[in-house]
Amino acid sequence: MGTINISKKYTAREKAYIPAILIGMKITMKRFIQGFFFRKHDTIMYPEAKRDYSQRFRGMHFISVDKNKTENCTACFLCETICPADCIHIVADERDEDENPYGVKKEKKPISFDIDSLRCCFCGFCEEACPKDAIKLSRNYELAVSSREEAIYDLDHLKRDVKGRG
Amino acid sequence: MEFFDVAQLLAKILIVVGAALGVVPVMVWFERRGAAWMQGRVGPNRVGPFGLLQPLADVIKFIFKEDFTPRNANKFYYYLAPMMALIAPLCALSVIPFGSKAIIDGHEVILQIATMDSGVIFILAFAGLEVYPIILAGWASKNKYSVLGALRGSSQIVSYEISMGLSLLSMLVVYGSFNPHDMVAWQASKYWGVLVNPFGALVFWISIFAETNRLPFDLPEGESELVAGYHLEYGAMKFALFFMAEYVAMIMASALIATLFFGGYALLPGMQTLIDLIGAQFAFGEVGLQNTKALFEFLSICSKIAFFMFMFVWIRWTLPRFRFDQLMDLGWKILFPLSLINLVIVTIAVYYFNS
Fold this sequence. Notes:
The structure holds two protein chains of two kinds. By secondary structure, chain A is α+β, with helices and mostly antiparallel strands. Helix content of chain A is 24%, strand content 14%. Chain A contains five helices and five strands. The longest helix of chain A has 21 residues, at 18-38. Chain B is mainly α. Chain B has a two-stranded antiparallel sheet with strand order 1-2. In chain B, helix 5 (131-140) runs antiparallel to helix 6 (144-175). Chain B is globular and about 65 Å long.
């Protein structure tokens, strides 16, 4: 019970081994010619070319801004509340009247908006919770930093110019 | 010895050693690029045009790496092993003829470093020496993986040396000479050895894969189970020496199989007409013709060696590694009896045709 014999009887052709070698060599030669003469390759030449991820890919965060470079965030704390990793830290403040020339009144603003990307699990809950579509996740996947401090994204970094969804 | 003799000898040594060591970086580059092409990748392409300077960058890295010696290693043998690994195949190259003869300043120069009648035996002796650096390296570095790799390497090389020697012996019976020049002359006047004894050529070809520790027989190095095998404890330039030795051994093996079975430096079809054309064009005398012929003979053996080097790379990226018992089965139960039978058949055939 329990033992399954998966060994199989090899045909004379398979035992001779040489035909199989020749088939294999034919395949590698075909690939070699494709690569050598026709420069066919599946490699993405990374720093120059980048992998095209889906529109729904969740990468580095950003905060959308209006025409006046004012962030859409109203410091409602919904994202900070829903964040399962506790990585968003907002300090709210009142916004000046003259900062709102477009009629839409934003009474509050964040004076600091930190996202600790080392804690972040990129679940996208903040994006879904946000009533103003302010916080979003871009398609930028190059998250490498050279120090821990750089991994904590502050408001200036989040308000950077992101085209489309990055 | 006269001045001319010494000068021509030194020049020949310079050419052969320079060519052998100069081919190594090109082969390293080709191995990596070729592998990439066969696998649909790109390979090293950043350093220099087409990545050609990548081996140079590797060498710089090797030179500046820490020269580390394990504490419990046997220092003498530990340092001796990489040297021997490179010296043995380089010595064996000295009896490979790379042309018949050139005439320089009225002197005949035989295009072979060491002219000796027992040339093939000399090559075999130094090919046999290739087992020592593996054992020394594995044993002296006091590491279990290294010892296992050395055990595998030595048993593999010793086993395959037998079938290699037997297929070589069958060719010696055919040519009736140990001298590589006689062998090439025989092949040039009749047919290539591979046509006379195709099975011997196949066995010899399989055996040199085992002798040079190339895939599918690279069990001494077996990355997946032995980390790196016998050269696990070697770093920096000492590892680079092992690395170079592998490629020099490949060149040596390719030159040997080209000389024994594929006509050596004998002119390829069409080359003689080309020589006649060039001779007629520039109105060469006998000396000029002979030197042109020597040049084309050099090209001939170089192209053959290049072909076999390509085969090494091609096979490497086609076949997976054998299991060790399969390797031994192939060596002792298949190749050994078959090459023995082949030797008997060839001997009878030679006796029959000569009488």
